[in-house]
């Protein structure tokens, strides 16, 4: 449970891993808010005080709006929720410090976004309903709505992006040109699980398997450093309760909490492989205390 801190001024610096709840605390709040709304993205704000889904989460775990502000909450958008018009044709030298989440409306995509918010990351997300996304995440996330086949929209979506996280088979990697300019790709894949299925389950998973194979092939051929996280069967179970297993072949038969999967995707951002890393992960017995150290170990093992 979070503890509200009474400080006279904001802390001068933050640790690499900000003071945050366990995934279990996050899970309990996420589930609670889901029950109160038809969809996590359809949170509604009262006229008296606008409080988005992300704000409620961070109030809960960081001790109130003041600490939330110190975690990097930007100023509120105008009342109409719009963003200032940008000159889409302008070529501005922009620092690439944003993380693009390719499916910000999927359940696991939202979990990834919430984990990124806690990391104080600059976030861009592809969504279909901009108003619902703004209601849910406020100005913590720059939401993008448009056609990925439109070059102008794609250019704007990738502007300032250093890393791409794709946590679902959303078709983003159907065109290799969509990765232009990115410095790191993190792909959550269930290919190992699909390949390990048999009988009627293999038939049911055949389409998803082909999409997963296409996504992995596109990412590997992109020439951009990548981390492909081959997860076991994704489960709607609380994260943070179990450890992990990274053994070869584990993903074919094992299971992984969606919340844990989202957390691993975000932790992978801090460890850039020279070329690429493919790892398998399921829930198991190993407790990971330092994810950067763990990914360094996995990268070293893969390069041997």
Automatic annotation (TrEMBL):
NAD(P)-binding domain location is 107-270
Which residue ranges does UniProt annotate as crossing the membrane? none
What is the top-level taxon of the source organism?
Answer: Eukaryota
List the InterPro entries hit by this protein, alphabetically.
Answer: NAD(P)-bd_dom, NAD(P)-bd_dom_sf
Q: Which Pfam families match?
A: NAD_binding_10 (PF13460)
What protein is this chain from? (wild Malaysian banana) hypothetical protein
Tell me which species this is from: Musa acuminata subsp. malaccensis (Wild banana)
């Amino acid at each position: 449970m979070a503890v509200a801190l009474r400080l006279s001024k904001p802390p001068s610096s933050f640790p690499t891993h900000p003071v945050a709840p366990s995934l279990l605390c996050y899970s309990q709040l996420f589930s609670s808010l889901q029950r109160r709304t038809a969809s996590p993205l359809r949170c509604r704000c009262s006229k008296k005080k606008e409080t988005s889904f992300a704000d409620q989460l961070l109030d809960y775990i960081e001790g109130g709006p003041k600490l939330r502000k110190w975690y990097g909450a930007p100023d509120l958008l105008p009342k109409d929720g719009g963003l200032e018009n940008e000159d889409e044709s302008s070529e501005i030298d922009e620092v690439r410090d944003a993380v693009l989440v390719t499916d910000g409306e999927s359940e696991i995509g939202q979990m990834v976004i919430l984990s990124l918010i806690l990391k104080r990351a600059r976030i861009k997300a592809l969504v279909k309903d901009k108003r619902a996304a703004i209601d849910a995440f406020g100005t913590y996330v720059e939401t993008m709505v448009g056609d990925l086949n439109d070059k102008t929209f794609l250019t704007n979506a990738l502007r300032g992006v250093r890393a791409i996280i794709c946590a679902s088979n959303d078709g983003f990697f159907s065109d290799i040109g969509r990765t232009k300019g990115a410095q790191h790709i993190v792909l959550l894949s269930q290919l190992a699980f699909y390949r390990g299925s048999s009988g009627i389950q293999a038939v049911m998973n055949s389409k998803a398997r082909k999409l997963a194979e296409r996504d992995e092939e596109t990412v590997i051929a992109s020439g951009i450093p990548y981390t492909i996280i081959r997860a076991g069967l994704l489960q709607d179970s609380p994260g943070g309760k179990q450890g992990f297993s990274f053994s070869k072949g584990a993903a074919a038969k094992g299971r992984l909490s969606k919340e844990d999967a989202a957390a691993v995707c975000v932790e992978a951002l801090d460890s850039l492989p020279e070329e690429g890393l493919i790892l398998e992960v399921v829930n198991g017995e190993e407790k990971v205390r330092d994810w950067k150290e763990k990914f360094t170990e996995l990268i070293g093992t893969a390069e041997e």
